[in-house]
Amino acid sequence: MTTESIPILSIIVLSPLIGAFLLIIQPEKWHMQIKLTALLFSIVSLLGSIFIYIFYDQTAGGFQFIEQIPIVKNLGVSYYLAADGISITLVLLTAIILITGLFASWKMPFRSKEFYILLLLLTTGVFGVFVSFDLFLFFLFYELSVLPMYLLIGIWGTSAKVTPKGIFANAIKMTGLGSKEYGAMKLTLYLLLGSAFILVGFFGLYIFSGLHTFNYTALEEVTLNKGTQNWLLILFYIGFGTLAGVWPIHTWSPDGHAAAPTAVSMMHAGVLMKLGAYGIIRIGMGLLPDAAETLAPLIGTVAVINIVYGAFGAMWQRDLKYVVAYSSVSHMGIVLLGAATLNEMGLNGAIFQMFSHGIMTALLFALVGLIYEKAHSREILKMGGFAKSMPGIATFFLIGALTSLGLPGLSGFVAEILVFLGAWKSPLSWWLIPAVLGAFITAVYVLRVAKWIFFGPKKNSTPLKDAIGYEWIAPTVLSAILIVLGVYPKLLLDPISTSIVEFLGKFVK
Amino acid sequence: MHWDNIIFFLLATGLVSTSVAAVSSKRILRSAIFLAIALLFTAFVYLLLGAELLAGIQILLYAGGVITLIIFALLISEKLGDQKLVETHHGVIPALTASLLVLFILLYFTWSSPRIESLSNSRSLSEYGVSRTLSEVLFSTWVLPLEILSVLLLAAIIGALVLARQEKTKGEEREQ
Amino acid sequence: MFATSETLLILVILPPFISFALNGLIPDLRKNKKTSSGISILAIVISALSSIALVVINPDTDIVFEWIPLTSFSPIIFGFFIDPIVLIMFLIVSLVSLAVQVYSLDYLREESPLSFGRYYTFQSLFAFSMLGFVASLSLLQIYIFWELVGLCSYLLIGFWYTRPEASRAAVKAFWVTRFGDVGFAIGMVLLWGATGTFFLPELFIKAPEISNPFLTLSLFLIVLGAMGKSAQFPLHVWLPDAMEGPTPVSALIHAATMVVAGIYLILRLFPLFELTLDPLVFVMWIGTITALLGACLAIVQNDIKRILAYSTVSQLGYMMAALGAGGAGVAYFHLFTHAFFKSLLFLAAGSLIHSLHTSDIWSMGKLAKKTPQVTALFLIGSLALSGVFPFSGHFSKDEILMWMHVRGFTLHFIILLITAFITSFYMFRAFFVVFFGKGESTSGQEVQEVKTPWVMTLPMWILAVITIFAGFQAGNFFNFLGLRLEEVHTHLEYLPLIVSILGIALAWTFYQGRYLSSKNVAISLSPINTALEKKFWMDDVYLWAYRYVLDGLSIVCGWFDRYLVDGLVNFTAYYTKRASQKLRTIQTGHAQDYLYGIIIAILLLFFLSILSPYLSPFLNEKENSVEFSEQIIQKGLQDDDD
Amino acid sequence: MSLYHILFLSFLVFSIGLFGVLSRRHVVGILIGIELMFNAANLAIVGIAWSMGVLTGQIIALFGIAITAAEVAVGLALFLLVERLTNTVYADKIDTMRG
Fold it and tell me: Do C557 and A169 touch (CB under 8 A)?
């Protein structure tokens, strides 16, 4: 059987959807069976992702595993799935995080059936976005990946306390900052606002290209005039940038991530934010190369602000989940900075950082979930000396933290150094300095948090236990990936680089 | 001036005047009656346009059925609510402005559209029996919509029954 | 022959890594004291033997592989290689590691199996990283191992993480070195930007093409990294605090190996530094200042480990100064001798601390009779550090001082000479107080017995032997490096020795003979004394920077984000809500009013259609879309006719 | 008699119906207005079909009439219900949809 004859991408994308439908018809009481069904269909997706990773022909390059079925001929809509090195990387990331996320949220105290259904639906959307090359389909999947979030956070989330202060204190008090409903609502509203921009952008492409098609490869061939391109790119930048956590439209992300349950935080910070960056790179820069070159200084500068500002923001937080959430904002800055460099190192680094940060942040959120489960608190200053009673969690947390600060030997470093190199070779080479400083600030807050939580004498007297059994799965798998990629980045850089080099062919250099 | 033009203008005058009467009459029962007459005039216009079947249905179903229905409803409600069926208008000036504006818009589009012009060279359909052809088409090409329509009517009947149902059922006015 | 030397190179670097991996991945190995330490020591023995074999063979070999594939730029290549400099470092690292790991068997006897295993896991990782660092053939690779040894330092300083001081010191060490690394990273990227390669041989070939201010800038930045790692002023503050770690760790990482990484880095990149002199002058000044500063601070310390830590800072300053003066060879020789005698001192101090459970010199005393062995060892180390003939420190320090003198850096020469005087003073202050003092401990307890089993003494004696005889090997050392030992004969030749002996004599006067009271002197020099005790307020400056710059900025950012950016969002949300409450009253509930709404919409559409010709610049596809709708209508009509 | 005449007539009746819908207070009065508008629409459709010489228009009008009948039935039932519940026949008295 050849690789062409299997609709492998459809299998990956639709497997969670089928799983979700099968879950719908199962009775609520069959807890174990529900979990196993969800797991089974996730594993199918994972196997599919590994399959495309292995069988992607790097010498040939380009889009492979293509499936194209027209849906609405008159409007140029088709079911067009394909994958290149970038997509493969991100699909693999999604599958890994889905499975580890399932294990991290294995004990869902109530309404577990609906939880898994929504999680699987969300994942279908994410898979779909990464492999669909028809803008209509892309948008469909995009919305599918955004909307279940509202319920997932609103129902299964946790609330935090935020004291209203400052000149907008009254407004903050009235809108109820910190609660899970607030987080869910804010996230949804932000992301829907973003998708409105994206939709306008898509229609703009549809009309101005004059082709009346949503087909990505067809649109790639068209060169629009510069003004139009700029406007469209700004639309995409704002639209996808919302999801990617671009400053200053990032504030949904800390609230949303902090309120979400563990698996959802993992999925959201780990994968969904990458969706935004992916959109900017694939759609924004891929279809509008001239505008990308014009606007790269803007995108890169904002990304640099993201890096430093996010790091300082994380430093200020005293709630563990908020710290991790803000660090995501900072790290997404590195992704976008890499993208804005528009050279090989930068873009390789950006994609690699997407993967690395996805795994890392998922690891951290999984551990935060575990700590919360054991200690029933997320207040950093109330914790202390946890390493004595939970050495395993401490070790894994440290691995995550060290990846976050870009320690060599872990995957974060590879991504960061590539982005640094790219930044220096980009037109605005001063980007390098704040980016490196950002890594330093990250080191400050990340190690400080690790110190506060795990080291020093034990603060509270409640007996704490280390993780047990299945709880080890997520941290172990994720840490192993971080280390392996840190030591041998070629595993991922080979496919990424193949596609990036093709991608860069669009830019006049 | 051709004779059917004269008839058309007479019918048109009648239709417009009865319509005006239908919307402006102080007594709602009278309005209903004027509506019936207006519908009859329309039926005659259909005849003039060679749509015999349509004219028949207009008279039977519309002028007959619908008006009967309205009058029944009015009488029932008068009995029920013990209210005089005296009708007053409100907001006449905005209503008038709005309707005139709509009229203007409609006319503007009609007269500025090249398509209407191209269509307005009238063709006669009298070569073949219109009613016969219509029936044939109705029960061949359009049979699916027709069936759907019948389901709709059934649903409407049941819906009306359910809505208007009282402790003491008074559903005898439903003739459709 | 070629193959064997490659194999040996792998045998030096890889065994500690395998040991780390085994201990790290298999909990059962780690949780057993015998297996964890056994594997680790076996690994380092293999490394040490292979290093010795390599030194004997002295081959020229390398292993190169691609790490990051790039097409539009040359791919990033990594590799390991051997040259005399690497070999000497191999020897230092593997031998001191071996000594320390054996020593730790007893030192950490009382630890639980789990943390014992953890210790050896980290030790292996450190040995691997340090050996890898030494043999790196690529600047990026150097950076990677550089950070990894920093990580090990962090982990091992914080080994007793339940102690707040230890965890604080660990984090501080990481932060300060990391701050230096910001410079290193930027400098590295700049160099790469100019030459397009990280590969050292290629870098050296291309370096002369780099325009000068740019090269100077990059080298300055790299020196910043070296200053952080090698605890040079003003980034030296982490090293004394790092003494919170177990003493063997201090001996290995914070005396012999990791802290010299900065010196090694500059040495490695010396071909670049030779192209532009400004960074070297800077390095020389920094080194000189650090040497003096460290020595001065060591005088007032009461903690034996801190005295040693400051002396390390000071000695590293010597090396830096020598490097800055162009004396790469003499600096390296001092690095070599210092590694052995300083780890000897640390281990000797450690055996005291281990038995007495205190590191305060005033709590010790009268130990000379109780443990003559340790006394002798400590004395050897102290004499070496003070630069007394015939110990190794004498030769290396003499070389540095003479180098400065001959090259005409008189001011530096004088400062370093004074430093040498202070060095022997504070060293023997500690020596006299600890071994012959009265034991003026505050607790008043009688000093306990000092137990030194052979696993502790044997490594120390080996180091002591090296300390005694290494000095005479200076000629061989320089030959091995391919340099020539300069035989200097000036009238100042014996000055360093005299100064050292004077220092010892002064210490004797104060603390042994008690002809002078140190307290009276301290009172009469109170401003200086205060300054020294406050460590010249360096820590306070850093604390201030941490509290008010970093934390301050974080508060600004965090507050701004939470209450202004987010506040604006909430403000919008809140007023949208309020506005909607107002706006909803236009829904009167009267069906006819809604109809007016429809009519208004129709009107709007009407105006839009009327205005559409004027809007056409925005919708330049208008004709097209009209045609499109025409087509659809035509098609519909055709279907109808069928 | 041309299409223009028919359309003009149709629009006129439509506007009159609209006026009725907008200005009458009695619910049945509104319904009567709606009927007029429907009728006008049917007239326009038949007229256009007539001038194009196709039958489809008549069929649409036929369906329109049938749908109107259904609509009237439901509308009147609603009228009776509303009248019974709120005890009024005037549209401006009924404002339960108010925001």
Answer: no
- C592–chain B Cβ distance below 8 A for any pair: yes
Cα–Cα distance measured from residue C482 to residue A273, given in angstroms and rounded to the nearest whole number: 57
Give buried/exposed letters for C25-46 (b at 16+ CB in 10 A, else e).
eeeebbbbbebbbebbbebbbb
Task: Among C165, C563, C618, pick the best mutation site for testing chain A contact (most A Cβ within 10 A).
Answer: C563
Q: How far apart are CA C79 and CA C66, in angstroms?
A: 8
Number of domains in chain D: 1
How do residues C339-386 score in pLDDT, each as one tens digit?
A: 888 888 888 888 888 887 777 777 777 777 777 888 888 888 888 888
- How many domains, in total, are found in chain A? 1
Q: Which residues contact C376 (CB under 8 A, 6 or more apart)?
A: none
CATH of the domain at D22: 1.10.287.3510
From B98, which residue of chain C is nearest by alpha-carbon distance?
A: C599
C-D interface: how many C-beta pairs under 8 angstroms?
Answer: 34
- Assigned domain for A449 exists: yes
Helix (H, G, I), strand (E, B) or coil at D63: helix
C-beta separation of C157 from C163 below 8 A: no
Q: C171 and A421: CB-CB below 8 Å?
A: no
User: Per-residue pLDDT tens for C129-145?
Assistant: 999 898 888 888 899 89
Question: How far is residue A214 from each of residues A77, A78, A227, measured CA to CA in Å?
Answer: 6, 8, 21
User: Is residue C588 within 8 angstroms of chain B, CB to CB?
Assistant: no
Chains D and B touch (3+ CB pairs under 8 A): yes
Closest partner residue to C603 (CB to CB) among B91, B94, B101 is B101
Name the residue range of residue A323's domain.
3-160+176-500
Would you call B70 helix, strand, or coil by DSSP?
helix
| DSSP code at position C447 | P
| Strand, coil or helix: A174 | helix
Asked if C606 has any chain B CB less than 8 Å from its own CB, the reply is yes
> Could you tell me the two tokens for C512?
């042994």
Asked, for residue A171, whether it belongs to a domain, the answer is no
Could you write out the DSSP letters of every residue in C188-200? HHHHHHHHS--BH
| ipTM reported for the complex, 2 dp | 0.74
Are the C-beta atoms of residues C72 and C15 closer than 8 Å to each other?
no
Cβ partners under 8 Å of residue A216, min gap 6: A80, A133, A134, A135, A138, A286, A287
pLDDT digits (tens, 9 = 90+) for A446-473: 888 888 888 878 776 677 777 777 888 8
Q: Enumerate helices (H) and strands (E) in chain A, giving the number of each.
A: 23, 2
User: How many CB atoms are located within 10 Å of the residue B50 CB?
Assistant: 18
Whether residue D24 is contained in a domain is answered as yes
Q: How far is it, in rounded angstroms, from Cα C278 to Cα A234? A: 47
- What span, in angstroms and rounded, lies between the C-alpha atoms of A70 and C333? 76
β-strand partners of C199: C138
What is the structure's pLDDT at B64? Answer: 80
B94 touches chain C (CB under 8 A): yes
Let me know if residue A408 belongs to a domain.
Answer: yes
B153: Cβ–Cβ under 8 A, 6 or more apart, which residues?
Answer: B176, D66, D69, D70
- Kindly state whether B103 is in contact with chain C, defined as any CB-CB distance less than 8 angstroms: no
Q: Do residues D27 and B72 make contact, with C-beta atoms less than 8 angstroms apart?
A: no
* DSSP line for C298-355: HHT--BHHHHHHHHHHHHHHHHHHHHHTT-HHHHHHHHHHHHHHHHHHHHHHHHHHHH
Residue-number span of the structural domain to which D57 is assigned: 3-93
Among A187, A77, A85, CA closest to A130: A85
Choose among A345, A361, A365: nearest CA to A489: A345
Residue A52 CB coordination number (10 Å): 22
| Residue B45 CA from chain centroid, whole number | 12
Rounded to 10°, the helix C84-107/C261-268 angle is 170
Report phi then psi at C308, rounded to 5. -65, -35
